[in-house]
Structure formats: structure tokens, C-alpha cells
Design a protein that fits this description.
Blueprint: H1 11-39, H2 45-57, E1 60-61, H3 62-69, H4 73-85, E2 89-94, E3 97-105, H5 107-127, H6 133-149
Antiparallel strand pairs: 1-3, 2-3
Amino acid sequence: MNVKNKKSYGELRDLSMQTWVQLFRAYTKIRAKETQYIHGFNLTMIQFQVLEVLYHRGDLNIGAITKLTMSTPGNITVVVRNLKRDGLIDSIADSKDKRASILSITQKGKEIIEELFPTHAKNFEEHFKVLSKEETETLYNLLRKLHKSQ
């Protein structure tokens, strides 16, 4: 597009949209790299997210997992069924709600996360190494502020 024909919607609107595009591009690149890494463990990204949540947060019901993974109930149901089939998670009846179940990570699931996660964490350090510690903290605080405002 010719710069002189570039349409403007106002300085702040243009900057907001340009910022969103840069944020989305960075997210897309990092997610693609991490998805490729996680696929090496025969997991989809959402399967990894469910295992990671159960590993770090402990036993949870499907509703909590759906919220924490920012997924949908229908998708989580399929993911949970496949993780159970593969012996990576178990479910037990919820003593507080007989219609629901509590999910927990199995020893096999823990072993996969314990093998996968240290490198996953190191990968993120690599993704953000272009920023100083102070810049990373500022970015974190600004993104958290934006998230909380929605």
C-alpha cells in the first residue's frame, strides 16, 4: 500500500491497532515454536495445557480446567477423554457434586511434564532474551493491566 494513501482512523486508534498486530505476530511466532516442541512429545497444545494445569495446580474439575486453559467445554471434553485413554490423567467422582468429576494427572502424565517442562521454560527465556529484565517486567505489567481491564 502506498504510504500517502494510507487510511488513518486517528492517531491513538492507529497505534492501538498496530500494537495489537505486533502483539499477535509475536504470540503467533512463539506459539508455533512451542507447539512444534510439544508435538515432539506426541501431545497437542491443549493436551499439554491440561496436563500442565493439573501438574502445577493439582486436581481440578473440568470447569476449572476449561477456564484456566481458555478453552471450550466441548473441546475440553474430547481432550480429557483422549488423555484418559492414553493414561495421562484419571478422574474420580466429585464428592461435592455427583454429576461432576475431579481430574488428576497420573504418574505417566507427571513423567511427561517433568521431562518436557524444563526445556519449555528455557525456551521462553530464549524467546524473551531480546528484552532486558526490566523490559520484560514492564511488558508483563502492561499486559496484565490490559488483561485486567477487559
